[in-house]
Protein: CorA family divalent cation transporter
Organism: Dokdonella ginsengisoli
Amino acid sequence: MLTCHGGDGRALPADSADAATSGCLWFDLCDPSGEEIGRVERVTGVRLPTLERIRAIEMSSRLRLDGDVLHLNVPFFAHDVDQPQSPFGLIVAPKFLVSIRYGDSPGFARAAESVYAARTPADGAMVFAALVEALVGQLADHLETIIAKAGELSTRILCQARHSTRALTGMLAEIGRLESGLTRARQTMTGLSRAVGFTQENAPPWIAKTELARLKTVHKDLEALGELDGQMTDKLQFLLDAVLGFINIDQNDVMKLLTVASVVSIPPVILAGIWGMNFVRMPELKLPYGYPLALTAIVLSVVLPLLWFRRRGWL
């Protein structure tokens, strides 16, 4: 789908002649068809990268300056917390910006609103700055969601004395999902940071100082988010260790109970084995109360060890 935005940020009719000429400042391609790609190439005079090119992870394919045109590719980008990653590419020129993406993202809509709210004539650099600001804001929202879920999970793990095995298994799955989301955010952060840093270092002369200042602020925001990502990584590792520790404690409790049960069962088995032997001379067999005395002895051989284990705090 091709969406054309004018200099004021408003969407123009994609099928109109004006949108395909000087009236369009930002060509936003979402899952584009071959016909849409060809149309934008004819209007801009720039060859658009293929999906394979955008996905490439080598630096030479991701970031380059071709004359006055910046080619920036982000191979890993998380458009939402629970959605898979998809790449997107940007072509920044003095009079236009082309974005090629393969997933719906609210950050692009925010960028259009920001350009419209500025109420000033825009160029490719201004749209690019507004777009990366919106994407970094979306990334911050992504991390805030992960932080909130991790805090809730931490409360459930650490503020309850005991957990069932099923509950601990579910907590492990939750930690895995949070770590997966954090990984997607980290890869997104890395791609955006490199794109912004490359633009700052290789800025063409047509990019105004005001836009470079905005990009510098965005780069600092990305560094701050990187520090937050490191803290969240440590916290998730701590929660993982805590859950695994509870699982080990639970397993140790089970083994302790089995050990106590095996020890308690030894005396009655011995007594029953002795009195079950078929010898001719066993004096206690002729006692008037031999049978109830034997049962009493067997019961006491079970109860006394249990009382001793309980006194020692092993139960």
User: Anything to note?
Assistant: Helices lie at 34-44, 51-55, 59-62, 106-118, 124-158, 165-201, 209-275, 290-312. The two ends are 67 Å apart (CA to CA). The domain at 252-312 is CATH 1.20.58.340 (Methane Monooxygenase Hydroxylase; Chain G, domain 1).
